[in-house]
Amino acid sequence: MKLLRDLLDKQVVDREQVKVGKVDGLVAQLRPGKPPRIIAIELGSITLARRLGARPGRWMARLAVKLGGTQHGEPHRIAWRKVKDIGIDIEFDIDVRETSIFAWQDWLRDHIIGRIPGA
Amino acid sequence: MKKLLEISLGVVTSVGGFLEVGSMATAAQAGAMFGFQLIWAVVLGTVCIIFLVEMSGRFAAVSHHTISDGIRERFGFNVFLWPLLAALLVNFLVLSAEIGGVAIALELATGIGFQWWALPVALLAWLLLWKGTFGVIEKGVSFLGLVTLCFVVGAVMLRPDWTAVARGAVPSLPVHDAANYWFMAVSILGASISPYLFMFYSSGAIEDRWDKSYLGANRAIAGLGMTFGGTISIGVLIVAALVLATHGVTQVDDYHQLPLMLIPIFGFWGFVLFVASLAIACFGAALEVGLQQAYLVAQGFGWNWGEDRKPRDDPGFSATYTISLLLAAIPIALGLDPLRLTIFSMALTAASLPLTVVPFLFLLNDKRYVGEHRNGILSNAAVIFIIALGFVLAVVTIPLQIFGGT
Amino acid sequence: MAHQTPDLIVSRRYLRLDCLCLLLLMLSACSSSDQIEQQSRTVASASQTVLMALDAWAAGAAPTAYTVDTLQSIGKTLADTGAQIRSAETSEPTEQASLTKAVNDLSVAVTRAEAGLQADDRLKVQDAQQDLRLASRALATAYAKYFAPKP
């Protein structure tokens, strides 16, 4: 499997088919004498910023810490062993509500969107 | 029978998307200054958009990806960023122009200055997106858009010399005002080939759960719908040529001049019809562009999206269209002339085309996405032609705009 | 060959033309007579717009508020363009003066028509329309003289 071509930037969904995000980055383990093995995918703005360069990555991480606290200073990771199905989307056997990936969307809902009538 | 209904709905919908402030204003300007001579630009633009819309629909129906999903996945985030930023910027300007178009219509109807209408219009559009479903927006507003057919009726009632109209469909060199001629040709092409139109269409195909059985319907909707829209644009151009130019009004630089097109044909009803056409066409387009901004961002970053869901279920998505509408209302509320903004944004749209159209060449030829439904030679030739055209337009218009063209 | 005077900046249509001159290096005749030609045509188009709007109003096909707004907006264009024609450098001062006078007459007539509209005085509007027609004819004559081949 060509990892970069077939996995990177694909849509990620959880077991309820909720769209979690895109595969913004891959974490691979280098093994001497053997091909590298994927251990996790990464998603979120920090990973995206790192793809643009080391400096944007550092800026984004600092911004994330400032806005969300130290627990948001690292990109979100989903372990590869949780993968369930690779089709149009990549399905992981997780429930996004149990992760912190949607923390900012939850914040948005609780503080702004949810307060507007009719939401 | 059901398919037939789908097709006719789709055709009506694409008319709603096609005719907006840009195509109306550019066609009116061209008709007033150059008579029928620029009809070819409308025809060329319509043919180009037919190809792009058909491909977007086919891509969505076969691969179950929207165009933005496809670009991100196939080219990676770093490449995707460029068309994303270009489309966001162009859409912002177009959205602002559409809000301006509705605001002008309201000014004409009430006598209250257009800048006062910008925020109420944005609010009403937002309310529809907030509470409405995709079907309501797509179908309801588009049906009202049929009022723009009054331009076609008007054009026929004026009994134009149809051979002269046909001659105008063949490109020819200008005999006067060469610079204006080419600038208008560029604006017309920009108004016809709008990226929001084909991107929105692919999102709509996903929202309506299209699959391969829709390929025939897709072809019919793209072909008939866009031809229908182009016909109305040509109607505007013919009316402008036969009403404005024959009265000696050759330069349409002021939006107050626009209702004068229909008054000599329909009397007071002409005024009413013009105001209604402008308001409805622009409002429909504002809804589509506003929604497209949210689709673009949500699809690009993989968030939940869907107009039929409740705002609280996709906070990111609904926040994006809320902010887009609000921001786009600001230039108009500050009194920026909507007609100038329109012409400017149409030319910029034309210049941005290579960024959004180049991906089609790859996506529609990639077996992993479209399998056996790949592009044929004709479709690929059309894409290459549009890219080349967009490239030339970019080279011509960007300097013009920087140095102060409209 | 291309030149920019401050009044050029006001006229976007002209600037657009000017830029293409620079860009394509094809139009070699970007002289001040072009400026006056362009501005005269803007004035002619504007005055016909006013006549059309007034006709529509007289026929009961255009609301008064809309017609007044149109006259105000076009009146402003006339005033701006008139100022540009007046200050343009030209080798034919006599013709320039008659063009300027025609534009002035147009502006005055538009203002009168506006007053007539606001007072709902049909006669006054008709009078002003008559003046507008005369002034636009004078403009056409002056324009033709300006561009007539000189010995």
From TrEMBL, chain A:
Provide the protein name. Transposase
Organism superkingdom: Bacteria
From TrEMBL, chain B:
Compartments it resides in: Membrane
Q: Which domain of life is it from?
A: Bacteria
An example Gene Ontology biological process: iron ion transmembrane transport
Segments spanning the bilayer are 37-55, 75-97, 103-129, 141-159, 179-201, 221-245, 265-287, 319-336, 342-365, 377-403
Gene Ontology CC: one annotated term: plasma membrane
Which controlled-vocabulary keywords does the entry list? Membrane, Symport, Transmembrane, Transmembrane helix, Transport
Question: In the record, what terms sit under GO molecular function?
Answer: cadmium ion transmembrane transporter activity; manganese ion transmembrane transporter activity; symporter activity
Q: Which Pfam families match?
A: Nramp
Q: Which InterPro entries match?
A: NRAMP_fam (IPR001046)
Q: What membrane topology is annotated for this entry?
A: Multi-pass membrane protein
User: PANTHER family from the entry?
Assistant: NATURAL RESISTANCE-ASSOCIATED MACROPHAGE PROTEIN 2 (PTHR11706:SF33), SOLUTE CARRIER PROTEIN FAMILY 11 MEMBER (PTHR11706)
What name goes with this protein? Natural resistance-associated macrophage protein
Specify the species: Mesorhizobium ciceri biovar biserrulae (strain HAMBI 2942 / LMG 23838 / WSM1271)
From TrEMBL, chain C:
Per the UniProt entry, the signal peptide is 1-34
Identify the domain of life.
Bacteria
Swiss-Prot/TrEMBL keywords: Signal
Under what name is this protein listed?
Uncharacterized protein
